[in-house]
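Researcher: Quick sanity check before group meeting.
Model: Go ahead. Protein one:
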Amino acid sequence: MANLLDVLASCTDGKPEVLAGEFTSYGALKGATAEAVLEVLRPLQARHAELCADPSYVDGVLRAGAERARGLARPRVDEAYAAVGLLPPA
């Protein structure tokens, strides 16, 4: 029961000890917790649906991120290769 109260408190910005006094049955607590979790997830589900509807946008973001990561990592990778003798020193 404490776990459900913690989850409910996290989802509603409430305090577990205060919320505990609002429920007289485990079933009611479970239902309220489930609804609170669903409410927190709704915006995430909506954003996920938006992204799934535009796969080219997601591919572009991933491509741009990979390019940026390669640019940031390349100097360090070249140093490592040079240190083990796989590239001539710079």
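Researcher: Fine. The other one?
Model: Protein two, sequence then structure:
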Amino acid sequence: MSQQRVHTDVKKWLKQYQNYQANDFERVYDDWMHQTFDNMDPGIKEKFFSKLDTWFFHTHAFLQGTSFQMDARERILTLGRVFAENVDTIEDLQSELTVDQLTYIANQQITRGRLYSFAQGGLTGTGGWLLLGLDYPLMMLMNIRAVQLVGLTFGHEMNHPYEMMISLKVFHAATLPKRLQAAAWRDLMDEVERKENPFIFDGDDQLTNEAWLEQPIKQGFKSLFILMFRKKIFQGVPFISIAIGAYSNYQLTKQVTDFAMKFYQYRHLKMKEGEL
């Protein structure tokens, strides 16, 4: 896969979002959601989204300090040394490896992450109240981690404030409805193109808004379907609810990791071309 092929692949992938046309249901939903939040007290609305953003920031910081993440970091560096012996730091991956090699390593992390999501969704599908209650925060945590690992693979230190915000914005964009992702992609590219300091993020640090809430609403419907089908048991196992949970969680992680991969691939190519 040459650089030109990766570039073409990203452009082709992006076109599906640029050409996406919202259907009538999505337009009605957007109008209803905007009207609902327009009628809400501005102070309450701001506080709600501020607390949600704070939770994402703390989750990102928590992940950076876990041994699980440290092990993944070392695994990425070890794989990098297979291609270039002088890889010592995360930044070396960016300068020493080709986009093909970085993509290969990132795919190793992505495959593992999707498997974890599939397994976690299957467990949630058993219908236990504890597992259902933990499902959404666990899914967000796992998908934030997946974005972090892709970013690390492409040579970006996730413990730098700038890269932390970029990775969270990638996660946010990846979990938006399909009709909004092209605009989110443009905002991300504008952000990295105007970067002035590699360590300080001076752009808009707001992550969540009413448009983003469609994702947790979908997760709520998933939980409802799991509850509806958990008593449909075959040989003592609720296969339908397990399938719903596993498939739903896998698809979300696939959506997030596909977006993250394309973003960091494209960013890497632009940096190599001297445009960033």
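Researcher: One line on it for the slide.
Model: Residues 48-272 form one domain.
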